[in-house]
Design a protein that fits this description.
15 helices, 64% helix, disordered N terminus, 3% strand
Amino acid sequence: MTDAPSSSVPDWIQSLRGKILTALAGDPTGMAPYVRDIAAGDDTGYFVENGPAWTVHAGMGTLVAGIRALLLQALHPGALAGVHDWSRYREDPIGRLTGTVRWVITLTYGSTTQADAETRRVGRFHQRVKGDYRAGDGTERTYTAEATDLVRWVHLAFTDAFLAGHEVSRTPIPGGADAYVADWATAGRLMRVVDPPLTRDALRGEIDAFFERGELRGGERVDDVVRFLRRPPFPGAMGLAYRVLFAAAVATIPRRYRTLLGVRRWPLPVLTLTRVILRITERALGSGPRAQDMARQRLRRLEREAA
């Protein structure tokens, strides 16, 4: 497989692809070293080829999901304190984004050896993350990035966001929504989430339980995150597209959580506009190799070796 653009692909598509991949993977070709490494390895990895996790994480709905996940995660004051105190998202938002994308891509498409190494990399950083925060009930508490409730909340918010983002694209998931929740529960267990939910109803029931226990709250720090995420990190047409994606992320969030975030749905048909943007983006990204192509190279090699 070659990284060279096809002569049949318009220049503007190649240019758009480069900009998107620079934002997501830190590399205009999408072939950052960790992506190339996905072709190596001696096993099929944690997730089945073309299964629920492969399908959702290859879909363009991830562009909506990433924004939605950050919004929802911010509602837990402990999780938000960790981001506020330790993350460089204000100074280097693209760097933080590419770090998260690396983790998702590696776990989804890499071998178990590569996925385990990536999990350890994230875990080493999390060991340093600790501090204090004011909980939803007003009490002062300490936090660590490895605290059971915080790790669980991040997993719940991520899974729900990527499921909701994919549903915006109206692309079917093999086995349906429950299959994706059960599939991605593997990632939760790798990050030490105990008994992660295995169905959409169980997932959303746990999220609602956090709300009903009073563990979620808005406030000045949440407002700061919302302002930051609302501001497009890209110029020109990409900035306009980002505004639509942000509005789509908001539209998928239930009202009780939008109220805590202090955001409202657009009166425009934002989800329809989003689907147009996602189709254009899919055409751009599909014009060259992607992480799943590297994974298929590994799988086909393993099949040949087994034969």
